[in-house]
Amino acid sequence: MMSNAPMPSYNPAWSGQPAAVLPQRPRQIQWAFFLILAAAVFQVISTAFTVVYMSSEAFRDSVAAEIAKQNVPETGQDLVGMSVGIALATGVVMAVVAVIVYVAIAFLVKSGRGWARIVGAVLAAISITHLFAMTMPAGIFTVLQVASGIVAIIFCFIAPGSKYFTDMKNFRLANKMH
User: Is 94 in a helix, a strand, or coil?
Assistant: First the structure.
């Protein structure tokens, strides 16, 4: 037999506690966001200069000189042309990947993802190595790119930026429990 008693209502979203309030993003995190995007723009500009240089006769001559030092037997193929083409393609692909990573890290930092600021810090530290292989005039943009990235990540680790990441982590955890 069935009872005529009403079924209890169940609302899993209601816990009797107010939902956590979304933390306010500090101004320095906005600055970090724009600095990381600026680093991406500087990457594009630097890559454009690099492509122009790699397309020059001076670069072809330096590649030809390096190939000559290697005592590579004559194969009938244009090794200089192939080397320049591979260098260009590699440089452009790496630049595209770098820009995608910069933009992704910028948006993840802006949304308060703590792991993104750690990845950004590691990448900023690695980017310092770019300063050792600079050519001018692209080197100016490389310096700006590295400096923008480093300053942005510093903003993420000092107060109130560091507090924002902690608050966002706590906000996400609190909303998981509701």
Answer: helix
Instruction: Give DSSP secondary structure letters for 59-105.
Output: HHHHHHHHHHHTTPPP-SS-HHHHHHHHHHHHHHHHHHHHHHHHHHH
Buried b (16+ CB within 10 A) or exposed e, 10-37: eeeeeeeeeebeebebbebbeebbebbb
Per domain, the residue ranges of the chain are: 27-177
In DSSP notation, 15-37 reads -SSPPPPPPPPPHHHHHHHHHHH
The pair of three-digit structure tokens given for residue 14, joined into one six-digit string: 């209601």
- pLDDT, tens digit, 9 for 90 and up, residues 118-158: 999 999 998 888 778 766 676 788 889 999 999 999 999 99
In this prediction the pTM is: 0.77
Share of the chain above pLDDT 70, in %: 84
Q: For residue 123, what are the contacts with CB-CB under 8 A and spacing of at least 6?
A: 101, 105, 149
Neighbour count for residue 166 (Cβ, 10 Å): 12
How confident is the model over 33-55, as a mean pLDDT? 92
Instruction: Give the pLDDT band of residue 38 (cuts 50, 70, 90).
Output: very high
